[in-house]
TrEMBL record, chain A:
The chain crosses the membrane at residues 78-102, 128-149, 161-179, 226-242, 254-273, 279-295. Keywords: Lipid metabolism, Membrane, Sphingolipid metabolism, Transferase, Transmembrane, Transmembrane helix. One of its GO terms (molecular function) is sphingomyelin synthase activity. It is a multi-pass membrane protein. It catalyses: an N-acylsphing-4-enine + a 1,2-diacyl-sn-glycero-3-phosphoethanolamine = an N-acylsphing-4-enine 1-phosphoethanolamine + a 1,2-diacyl-sn-glycerol. Residues 223-297 form the Sphingomyelin synthase-like domain. This is Phosphatidylcholine:ceramide cholinephosphotransferase 2-like protein. The keyword Signal does not apply. PANTHER family: PHOSPHATIDYLCHOLINE:CERAMIDE CHOLINEPHOSPHOTRANSFERASE 2, SPHINGOMYELIN SYNTHETASE. It comes from the Eukaryota. Pfam families: PAP2_C. Belongs to the sphingomyelin synthase family.
UniProtKB/TrEMBL annotation, chain B:
It comes from Labeo rohita (Indian major carp). Residues 7-70 form the SAM domain. PROSITE patterns: SAM_DOMAIN. Keywords: Apoptosis, Golgi apparatus, Kinase, Lipid metabolism, Membrane, Sphingolipid metabolism, Transferase, Transmembrane, Transmembrane helix. It is a multi-pass membrane protein. It holds the Pfam family PAP2_C. Its EC number is 2.7.8.27. Belongs to the sphingomyelin synthase family. InterPro entries: SAM, SAM/pointed_sf, Sphingomyelin_synth-like, Sphingomyelin_synth-like_dom. It is found in: Golgi apparatus membrane. This is Phosphatidylcholine:ceramide cholinephosphotransferase 1. The lineage of its organism: Eukaryota, Metazoa, Chordata, Craniata, Vertebrata. It catalyses: an N-acylsphing-4-enine + a 1,2-diacyl-sn-glycero-3-phosphoethanolamine = an N-acylsphing-4-enine 1-phosphoethanolamine + a 1,2-diacyl-sn-glycerol. The chain crosses the membrane at residues 134-154, 179-200, 212-230, 302-322, 328-344.
Length: 363, 408
């Protein structure tokens, strides 16, 4: 019946000469059709053809899905980010505890004078330089935070940042603890030793954590945490992340240059302020950059993970890396999106919807 | 080889017998080559052939066709007879014709056909001794620079009395053992000798040697920097540092020479200068020789790997036990050595990582260009094959030889 109806259409069409869409002939019921072929329905012929077209499409599913590298290859997995955050937080607290412990062991300035340092021989101390460092550090952290908020894959990137930061602080705990360097300069006033006063020590830990370890906030009174420099770590790490996860066009290069300048100035000012030995800064830079490059090369080269000649998996933290990055199959693209996703009715769907096809699907 | 067209009756008869078609010899005894070639199915319908044929002559006609084709092919060959002619046309058709290499009766002869198999292109590892020489020069420069820097730093080490040894966790737990440093140096020398022997036995010694020199040189270069910028005090009161030579260049030169000649070892009496603590050169050598030995030795010599590891670990432990270095020196040395070694070898073994790309951060190191120069022509991971240092043939010890094929 339906097939004949279509044929009837064509017959009736004679004088119009409009083009016919040949639709697959299949059984379907058309409510308005009558056996005698007279058009008793009110709908124009084109609508009927469209309807038929839609239904045919729906039934045959003639369209094919073109997959783009989308969320399935870069799953968010916020819980992993949470774990990395806890790891970083734990290491931060442990560092603070360790600084408090090491403070007890720092030899007195009179007993153990500052060690000879090449940089200090050439450049005398400038008092306000350390504030410059800390201000730079705070600016960089704020910039990075804002940039991170606007990244599309912030879960993955955040995870990486927390993990690397935690690792670097862990290594710092080890190096601080095993050998204690004397104070770099006679100007440093270390907080007095509290030999067995655990209460006092805990208060110190809390004070340090709340102030972020910065002398601007007045929480940096403890000595002994010289090898290696935590300030250098933060400056270098935030700069590397800012540079890596932002576009590489010309305008953005200015931004990178600016951040690089902030970072470099901050590091040099640490030395100018005689707050750390040169070797502390050099080792901190080396470890930070190498760890960053190592991690990101491993993460971005999927082929490397399965290769037998991959020596990168001989590090002790390789299993943590696999846990965090197992489902990240491609390099994270540099895309930005609004931090909060409003419900979609609020805005127009940016993707142009091909209503004919979509609504046919939705029926 | 005669063409069929010039065969005589005898030859035709012989051929028929060879083909197992003796029944036709009688009927065709007066046919020569051209007559044979001109046989058609009609001939088989008439006598005398019709009387002897059982299939209407089909088989014989096919064989004649084949003969035509064979000869056609033979003619077009470049004068090279790969196979053996069925018939020897020199006249002694009888015996010689039958005497064939494989002794097949019916004239089916085996022609070994040459099938050229393109050999899978085995990766080539050009020795390029020139590059190894450059790496050696680089390593030597770094050694000399290190010695000069030690000599310079020695002048700046604060005296023990003014700057006592720094607090160190290991020293708190373990008291000093006097002879421990000798053990460390002996272990180091054993490892070095074993490594040199292993290197000389490697087939690709130029490539591996180049890598060793480059990595050692870079590690000592880094060491120069860390030693120079901040000077740590002596780790123990037992140290007897030689006196300072303020500005006396000649004696400083002589001191440098003495140290180079003795290899920087205390055993040889060449190392009585202080100040070279961060980071420990002894740890670097122990760890690096162990890493190289493990990397380039066959996997199944597990006892060898374990004994080298034991030598290395004991050596490092003894450095600390002798209170000759701070713990931080040893830890940093171990870290830098292993990371550099793994970094270099991962880059060297993956072709994809040798090129700069957005995802390849390994190329951001300052020594990347030097690395490319050294490793440009090394296509894949260097196989662990060994050979006698001064002989012609390579002896593949790890490799079963298929003698029947190999001896051809």
């Amino acid at each position: 019946m339906a097939a004949s109806h279509l044929l009837d259409d064509r017959e009736d069409d004679g004088p119009n000469g409009s083009c016919q869409v040949m639709v697959m002939m299949e059984e379907r019921t058309h409510p308005q059709a009558t056996p005698c072929g007279n058009q008793v329905d009110d709908k124009p012929k084109s609508t009927k053809r469209l309807q038929g077209f839609r239904k045919a499409l729906r039934k045959n599913q003639d369209y094919s899905r073109i997959s783009k590298p989308s969320s399935s290859q870069l799953p968010s997995e916020w819980w992993k980010t949470g774990i990395a955050f806890i790891w970083a937080g734990f290491n931060l607290v442990l560092t603070t505890v360790m600084i408090t412990v090491v403070n007890e062991r720092v030899p007195d300035k009179s007993v153990s004078p500052p060690l000879p340092d090449k940089f200090f021989d050439y450049i005398p101390r400038v008092e306000w330089a350390f504030s410059v460092t800390e201000v730079n550090g705070m600016i960089l952290v704020a910039l990075w935070f804002v940039q991170w908020l606007f990244l599309k894959h912030r879960a993955i990137v955040g995870r990486r940042f927390f993990f690397l930061q935690g690792m670097l602080y862990l290594y710092r705990i080890v190096t601080m603890y095993i050998t204690t360097l004397p104070v770099p300069s006679m100007h440093m006033d270390c907080a007095p030793k509290l030999y067995n006063d655990s209460h006092g020590k805990i208060k110190r830990v809390l004070q340090l954590v709340s102030g972020g370890g910065l002398s601007i906030t007045g929480s940096h009174l403890l000595c002994g945490d010289f090898l290696y420099s935590g300030h250098t770590v933060m400056l270098t790490l935030t700069f590397l992340f800012i540079q890596e996860y932002s576009p590489r066009s010309c305008k953005w290069r200015c931004y990178h240059g600016f951040c690089g300048l902030l970072s470099a100035t901050g590091v040099v000012c640490i030395l100018v302020a005689h707050e750390h030995y040169s070797v502390d800064v050099v080792v901190a830079y080396f470890i930070t950059s190498r760890l960053f490059y190592w991690y990101h090369t491993m993460a971005n080269n999927q082929a490397l993970r399965d290769s037998p000649h991959n020596y990168l998996n001989r590090t002790w933290w390789n299993w943590v890396f696999n846990f965090l990055e197992k489902n990240v199959k491609t390099p994270v693209p540099c895309t930005f999106s609004w931090p909060l996703s409003l419900p979609y009715v609020c805005f127009k769907n940016p993707c142009k919807s091909y209503s004919m096809v979509q609504s046919a699907r939705d029926e | 080889m005669n063409k069929v067209a010039s065969w005589s009756e005898e030859e035709v008869s012989l051929w028929l017998t060879d083909q197992g078609l003796q029944e036709y010899s009688e009927a065709l005894r007066n046919s020569n080559g051209p007559a044979l070639l001109s046989l058609t199915t009609d001939d088989f319908k008439r006598s005398p052939l019709s009387r002897v044929t059982s299939d209407g002559g089909c088989l014989l006609l096919e064989k004649i066709e084949t003969l035509k084709i064979e000869h056609h092919i033979d003619i077009h060959k470049n004068g090279h007879a790969n196979g053996h002619m069925v018939l020897n046309h020199d006249g002694n058709a009888g015996s010689a014709g039958k005497a064939q290499h494989n002794g097949m009766v019916n004239g089916f002869h085996k022609e070994p056909v040459q099938i050229p198999i393109p050999e899978p292109a085995s990766p080539q590892f050009p020795p390029e001794w020139g590059k190894t020489g450059v790496a050696l020069v680089y390593a030597l420069c770094c050694f000399v620079l290190t010695t000069v820097i030690i000599s310079v730093v020695h002048e700046r080490v604060p005296p023990k009395e003014a700057s006592p040894p720094l607090p160190d966790k290991f020293f708190d737990f373990f008291d000093r053992v006097e002879w421990a440093f000798t053990i460390c140096e002996i272990n180091g020398m054993i490892l070095m000798v074993l490594w040199i022997i292993q290197l000389s036995l490697l087939k690709h010694k130029s490539i591996v040697g180049r890598r060793f020199f480059f990595i050692v040189g870079t590690l000592y270069l880094y060491r120069c920097i860390t030693m120079y910028i901040t000077t740590l005090p002596v780790p123990g009161m037992h140290f007897r540092c030689s006196p300072k030579l303020y500005g006396d260049w000649e004696s400083q030169m002589r001191r440098v020479m003495k140290m180079i000649a003795g290899g920087g070892l205390t055993i040889t009496g060449s190392h009585n200068m202080c100040g070279d603590y961060l980071y420990s050169g002894h740890t670097v050598m122990l760890t690096l020789t162990y890493l190289f030995m493990k990397e380039y030795a066959p996997r199944r010599f597990w006892w060898y790997h374990w004994s080298c590891w034991a030598l290395c670990a004991v050596g490092v432990f003894c450095i600390l036990l002798a209170h000759d270095h701070y713990t931080i020196d040893v830890v940093v040395a171990y870290f830098i050595t292993t990371r550099l070694f793994w970094w270099y070898h991962t880059m060297a073994n993956q072709q994809a990582l040798k090129e700069t790309s957005q995802t390849n951060f390994f190329t951001h190191v300052w020594w990347y260009r030097f690395f490319r120069y050294l490793e440009n022509n090394v296509p894949t991971a260097v196989p662990r094959s060994y050979q006698k240092p001064f002989s012609w043939q390579s002896l593949h010890w790890g490799h079963v030889k298929y003698t029947r094929i190999d001896s051809d």
